[in-house]
Write a structure and sequence with these properties.
Elements (H helix, E strand, L loop, with lengths): L1 E7 L2 E7 L3 H27 L15 E3 L5 H14 L8 H15 L5 E6 L5 H9 L3 E7 L10 E3 L13 E6 L8 H10 L1 E11 L14 E3 L4 H9 L3 E9 L6 E9 L14
Parallel strand pairs: 4-5, 4-7, 5-6, 7-8
Antiparallel strand pairs: 1-2, 3-9, 8-11, 10-11
């Protein structure tokens, strides 16, 4: 058993995990990816004088969704990569401070602001938000059983409806929509967890686009296309706004899409488009 500490700016959290055969497999996969990158760079070097370059086909797509053979395969892949990346933190304090500002703007007079952060792996998101304000009562979820090792985290597949959460959350936040195999179902579930005046905040970057989609992160959509996709799924049942700023832990723009319900119950528009 290895024990490592996770540190980000002024806050530290602990993570423990087993260095198993799965880790060795992931290292081999990383080596294959590195080799592919070297080959691509060599080909581009040869083609550059002619004004051509090789790019992944997904890089010219607006939307991509990886297909699994079954839910069991999806869950196995997600739990595997959760454990491999257990010590990693994608979320950053700067973006979560932006989330705080949105929440204070929406619910500043409330004595308690209830929320769920979906797909938080080692619990950083909910615990950092809780540290920002005593009014924030926030839990996090993750599909892996490792979630139970972290404070204020529960093991849960974020696609699934939990009656205990339905209709009673002030907000839902996630930076993990890219890890969904049925993103339209996930968003529908999250919207159902909100109170009448609740908000859903989805963090998204270019790294969550089609080029970054894979078996590990099955859903990819360009940030500029995200509002269109959400509208295709839910139409006028929701309102969408967004803001963009740099993440504080990496050189990437972070979009925060804020979704509000325009009616009590929001359901997926029955359409083949982008589903």
């Amino acid at each position: 058993m290895l024990h490592k500490s996770v540190t980000t700016e002024n806050h530290s959290y602990s993570a423990s995990y087993c260095d198993t055969e799965e880790t060795a497999i992931s290292r081999r996969e990383e080596e294959v990816m590195r080799l592919k990158s070297l080959v691509k760079n060599l080909v581009n070097f040869i083609l550059k004088p002619a004004g051509f370059s090789v790019v992944p086909s997904k890089s010219i797509q607006d939307y991509y969704l990886h297909k699994y053979s079954s839910y069991e395969e999806y869950a196995h892949v997600q739990i595997h990569w959760n454990k491999v990346k257990l010590n990693n933190i994608w979320a950053d304090e700067g973006t979560l401070n932006r989330v705080r500002d949105i929440l204070i703007s929406e619910f500043g007079d409330a004595e308690k602001i209830n929320g769920i952060c979906h797909g938080t792996r080692n619990g950083f998101e909910q615990n950092f938000l809780r540290s920002l304000s005593k009014t924030f009562d926030v839990i996090g979820t993750d599909i892996s059983e490792t979630a139970t090792d972290y404070e204020n985290s529960v093991q849960w597949d974020f696609h699934n409806v939990n009656p205990a959460w339905s209709g009673n959350q002030d907000f839902v936040y996630t930076n993990s929509l890219d890890q969904s195999w049925q993103p339209h179902v996930a968003v529908e579930t999250w919207l159902s967890q909100l109170k009448e005046n609740g908000i859903l905040i989805i963090e998204h970057t270019h790294a969550h686009g089609p080029s970054g989609a894979s078996e590990m992160d099955p859903f990819g959509v360009k940030p500029t296309v995200m509002p269109y996709v959400l509208t295709m799924w839910f139409g006028s049942q929701i309102s969408i706004s967004h803001s963009v700023a740099k993440k504080s832990n990496m050189d990437k723009d972070s979009w925060l899409f804020v979704l509000k319900k325009n009616q009590h119950s929001v359901s997926l528009i029955k359409s083949d488009a982008l589903v």
